[in-house]
Amino acid sequence: MLTLGVDLAAADKRTAMATVEWLPGRAVVRDLILNVDDVRIVEAGGHVDKVGLDCPLGWPEPFVALVQAHRLGHVAVADGEGAQWRRRLAYRLTDEVVREKTGIIPLSVSADRIAHAAFRCAGLLAMLAAAGHDVDRGGGGRVVEVYPAAALYCWGLAHRGYKGRGQQVQHADLVTALRDAAPWLDLGMFEGLCRCSHDAFDSVIAALNARAAAIGLAVQPSDDQRPIARVEGWIALPTGPLSNLIHGADE
């Protein structure tokens, strides 16, 4: 099995992509590149079993309805419901599930700067679909939405404080912690890149998360949640320890 992890930024710069091969008893990072464009992501997606995209795959349905209503001048807010109304506009169903299960509050795709990456992602999903890939925003197809910070939390690893300027030590410590927790993961020649770039590191985590989704070790939407997940996107939270990812690898 091959999985692809993409840490998607608004532009090619800061976008990283990792390919992980799953073998008996081990997993090997076969490729890890920075500054990746959409064409390269689509091409790589055609050679793997599952693609983990670190980016919201859609917007909250109430937010979409608001934009349409606002265009026509028909927005109405019930008395005393302003705060809850705004929260429904800002957070998707999957964001609320992540918050409930991990305590982590995902960035709002309708109210935070991550929307810029989501704009790009919308076009990328269309390109993947046009290339013949099964794109199901609920995670049932080749593409699945992942959230590295939440995945790290689920796997018992540090999920905050390793990004940004002045965080090189914390970031390097996290790579060491990952190696200790997953001795079967071979970073090979890409270990140095993982240590110096959190974008590269996150793309590897996205590829691991894609593996969890591919083998049924990630939270899936319920029958009631699935129709919304297929529109808004669904974050595939891992449901077991890192060691479970290596079980059932291809012989």
Provide the low-confidence segments as ranges.
Answer: none
User: What would you call the structural class?
Assistant: alpha/beta
Shape: globular
Neighbour order of strands in the largest sheet: 5-4-1-2-3-6
Mean pLDDT, rounded to whole units?
92
Count up the helices: 10
The SSE order reads EEEHEHHHHEHHEHHH
| Cα Rg | 18 Å
What characterizes the major β-sheet?
6 strands, mixed
Protein name: DUF429 domain-containing protein
InterPro entries: DUF429
Pfam family, one: DUF429
What would you say this structure looks like, in words?
This protein has 251 residues and is α/β, with parallel strands linked by helices. The protein has one domain (2-246). The chain is 43% helix and 13% strand. It contains 10 helices and 6 strands, in the order βββαβααααβααβααα. The chain has helices at residues 38-45, 61-72, 82-90, 93-102, 114-130, 148-154, 168-181, 191-196, 198-214, 226-232; strands spanning 2-7, 16-23, 26-34, 50-54, 143-145, 185-186. A 6-stranded mixed sheet has the order 5-4-1-2-3-6. β1 and β2 (16-23) form a beta hairpin. α6 (148-154) packs across α9 (198-214). The longest helix is centred in the middle third of the chain and has 17 residues, at 114-130. It starts with a strand and ends in a 19-residue tail after the last helix.
